[in-house]
């Protein structure tokens, strides 16, 4: 059967992700199918302001026996169970000059670093959309403080710190083991895979087009407008053209800002506003505390001029919910064995998010 007109909102197609040199299959007609799969439990906002059992609440004892101080604002400390450590034994010696099957296929390298927990607020029952904008500014300032501190330690104390990955897992659906408002920061002596792939793509694009990939992307999104969710003077929130998760978004600076520490006071205010508005829209979408994983991609610590030239500050938000507060997206089957697939187009998702209130949280009307 011949289809006379291709409809991006109804017909299958693939979209290219230039950041990671990958593709995503878009099948918008599949959104019409009935759902008989797993149903999640909606998140409820019934947590107390202080939980005596929470190791992140002020004054409480943590699992290791250390005590969390009676902090009154944003607070960070070294993770009691870090994924990487600053000091560890060296790997066994291996002659890598020999062309052996082990050297070809079983490659290993040591990795050192440090991990931190960042408490956004002393109040156990808050999340970023429920915090005041000025309190989110304090979170951004804490990110800057930690970045600068680790960069300084790398130089003055020869600590093995190269890249700081700041992220937040919000909600049990994203594997969060403690619902106190917090994020994490893992600092490694190497650049992680996802960031390294982006850097490689940035270099390739610059070589081929003599332009910044994200600079051109911001200009194109501002021209087309169909995937814009929200914007202010400094930042743009879009559902990326190549988004995998149903309501995935990217926060990207409109001009080249290589890292979080380069933000001015007014730009920090703009980032705080963007985070509050976006996460409020997320919660309002299905009237639930919306789960997601968020991460900041930026320049490495003590970046060379070449690394600064290729870096462009942006944040990825990956939320798993698909149709409601109880139906989530799974990356299984074809997604695991073939390539990522989504049912909702980026434009449809952006329109739904754009039309939501980003200033009033749904709980304020209950």
TrEMBL record:
<keyword id="KW-0479">Metal-binding</keyword>
<feature type="binding site">
    <location>
        <begin position="329"/>
        <end position="330"/>
    </location>
    <ligand>
        <name>UDP-alpha-D-glucose</name>
    </ligand>
</feature>
<protein>
    <recommendedName>
        <fullName>Galactose-1-phosphate uridylyltransferase</fullName>
        <ecNumber>2.7.7.12</ecNumber>
    </recommendedName>
</protein>
<dbReference type="Pfam" id="PF02744">
    <property type="entry name" value="GalP_UDP_tr_C"/>
</dbReference>
<dbReference type="InterPro" id="IPR036265">
    <property type="entry name" value="HIT-like_sf"/>
</dbReference>
<comment type="similarity">
    <text>Belongs to the galactose-1-phosphate uridylyltransferase type 1 family.</text>
</comment>
<keyword id="KW-0119">Carbohydrate metabolism</keyword>
<feature type="binding site">
    <location>
        <begin position="334"/>
        <end position="335"/>
    </location>
    <ligand>
        <name>UDP-alpha-D-glucose</name>
    </ligand>
</feature>
<keyword id="KW-0548">Nucleotidyltransferase</keyword>
<dbReference type="GO" id="GO:0008108">
    <property type="term" value="F:UDP-glucose:hexose-1-phosphate uridylyltransferase activity"/>
</dbReference>
<comment type="pathway">
    <text>Carbohydrate metabolism; galactose metabolism.</text>
</comment>
<dbReference type="GO" id="GO:0033499">
    <property type="term" value="P:galactose catabolic process via UDP-galactose, Leloir pathway"/>
</dbReference>
<dbReference type="InterPro" id="IPR005850">
    <property type="entry name" value="GalP_Utransf_C"/>
</dbReference>
<feature type="binding site">
    <location>
        <position position="316"/>
    </location>
    <ligand>
        <name>Fe cation</name>
    </ligand>
</feature>
<dbReference type="InterPro" id="IPR005849">
    <property type="entry name" value="GalP_Utransf_N"/>
</dbReference>
<feature type="binding site" description="in other chain">
    <location>
        <position position="169"/>
    </location>
    <ligand>
        <name>UDP-alpha-D-glucose</name>
    </ligand>
</feature>
<feature type="binding site" description="in other chain">
    <location>
        <begin position="175"/>
        <end position="177"/>
    </location>
    <ligand>
        <name>UDP-alpha-D-glucose</name>
    </ligand>
</feature>
<feature type="binding site" description="in other chain">
    <location>
        <position position="341"/>
    </location>
    <ligand>
        <name>UDP-alpha-D-glucose</name>
    </ligand>
</feature>
<feature type="binding site" description="in other chain">
    <location>
        <position position="184"/>
    </location>
    <ligand>
        <name>UDP-alpha-D-glucose</name>
    </ligand>
</feature>
<feature type="binding site">
    <location>
        <position position="54"/>
    </location>
    <ligand>
        <name>Zn(2+)</name>
    </ligand>
</feature>
<dbReference type="GO" id="GO:0008270">
    <property type="term" value="F:zinc ion binding"/>
</dbReference>
<keyword id="KW-0808">Transferase</keyword>
<feature type="binding site">
    <location>
        <position position="297"/>
    </location>
    <ligand>
        <name>Fe cation</name>
    </ligand>
</feature>
<keyword id="KW-0408">Iron</keyword>
<dbReference type="InterPro" id="IPR019779">
    <property type="entry name" value="GalP_UDPtransf1_His-AS"/>
</dbReference>
<feature type="binding site">
    <location>
        <position position="124"/>
    </location>
    <ligand>
        <name>Zn(2+)</name>
    </ligand>
</feature>
<keyword id="KW-0299">Galactose metabolism</keyword>
<feature type="binding site" description="in other chain">
    <location>
        <position position="63"/>
    </location>
    <ligand>
        <name>UDP-alpha-D-glucose</name>
    </ligand>
</feature>
<feature type="binding site">
    <location>
        <position position="180"/>
    </location>
    <ligand>
        <name>Zn(2+)</name>
    </ligand>
</feature>
<feature type="domain" description="Galactose-1-phosphate uridyl transferase C-terminal">
    <location>
        <begin position="198"/>
        <end position="365"/>
    </location>
</feature>
<dbReference type="InterPro" id="IPR001937">
    <property type="entry name" value="GalP_UDPtransf1"/>
</dbReference>
<keyword id="KW-0862">Zinc</keyword>
<dbReference type="GO" id="GO:0005737">
    <property type="term" value="C:cytoplasm"/>
</dbReference>
<feature type="binding site" description="in other chain">
    <location>
        <begin position="79"/>
        <end position="80"/>
    </location>
    <ligand>
        <name>UDP-alpha-D-glucose</name>
    </ligand>
</feature>
<dbReference type="Pfam" id="PF01087">
    <property type="entry name" value="GalP_UDP_transf"/>
</dbReference>
<feature type="binding site">
    <location>
        <begin position="30"/>
        <end position="33"/>
    </location>
    <ligand>
        <name>UDP-alpha-D-glucose</name>
    </ligand>
</feature>
<feature type="binding site">
    <location>
        <position position="57"/>
    </location>
    <ligand>
        <name>Zn(2+)</name>
    </ligand>
</feature>
<feature type="active site" description="Tele-UMP-histidine intermediate">
    <location>
        <position position="182"/>
    </location>
</feature>
<feature type="binding site">
    <location>
        <position position="314"/>
    </location>
    <ligand>
        <name>Fe cation</name>
    </ligand>
</feature>
<feature type="binding site">
    <location>
        <position position="198"/>
    </location>
    <ligand>
        <name>Fe cation</name>
    </ligand>
</feature>
<feature type="domain" description="Galactose-1-phosphate uridyl transferase N-terminal">
    <location>
        <begin position="5"/>
        <end position="192"/>
    </location>
</feature>
């Amino acid at each position: 059967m011949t289809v006379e007109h291709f409809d991006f909102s109804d017909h299958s197609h693939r979209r290219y992700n230039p950041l990671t040199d990958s593709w995503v299959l878009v099948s918008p007609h599949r959104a019409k199918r009935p759902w008989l799969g797993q149903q999640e439990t909606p998140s409820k906002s019934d947590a107390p302001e202080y939980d005596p059992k929470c190791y992140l609440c002020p004054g409480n004892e943590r699992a290791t026996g250390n005590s969390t101080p009676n902090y009154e604002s944003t607070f960070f400390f070294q993770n009691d169970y870090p994924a990487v450590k600053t000091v560890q034994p060296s790997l066994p010696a291996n002659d890598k000059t020999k062309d052996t099957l082990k050297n070809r296929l079983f490659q290993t390298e040591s990795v050192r670093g440090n991990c931190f927990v960042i408490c956004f607020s002393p109040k156990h029952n808050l999340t970023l959309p429920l915090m005041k904008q000025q309190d989110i500014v304090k979170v951004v300032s804490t990110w800057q403080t930690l970045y600068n501190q680790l960069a300084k330690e790398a130089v003055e104390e020869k600590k093995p710190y190269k890249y700081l990955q700041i992220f937040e897992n919000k909600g049990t659906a994203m594997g969060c083991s403690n619902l106190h408002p917090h994020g994490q920061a893992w600092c490694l002596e190497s650049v992680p895979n996802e960031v390294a792939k982006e850097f490689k793509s940035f270099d390739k694009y610059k070589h081929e087009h003599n332009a910044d990939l994200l600079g051109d992307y911001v200009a194109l999104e501002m021209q087309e407008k169909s995937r814009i969710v929200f914007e202010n003077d400094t930042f743009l929130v879009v559902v990326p053209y190549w988004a995998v998760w149903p309501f995935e978004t990217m926060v990207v600076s409109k001009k080249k800002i290589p890292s979080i520490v380069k933000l001015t006071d007014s730009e920090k205010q703009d980032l705080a506003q963007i985070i509050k508005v976006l996460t409020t829209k997320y919660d309002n979408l299905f009237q639930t505390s919306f789960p997601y994983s968020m991460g900041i991609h930026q320049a490495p610590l003590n970046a060379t001029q070449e690394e600064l030239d290729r870096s462009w500050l942006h944040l990825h938000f990956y939320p798993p919910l698909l149709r409601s507060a109880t139906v989530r997206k799974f990356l299984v089957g074809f997604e695991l064995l073939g390539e990522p697939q989504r049912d909702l187009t980026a434009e449809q998702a952006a329109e739904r998010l754009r039309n939501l209130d980003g200033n009033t949280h749904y709980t304020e009307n209950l």
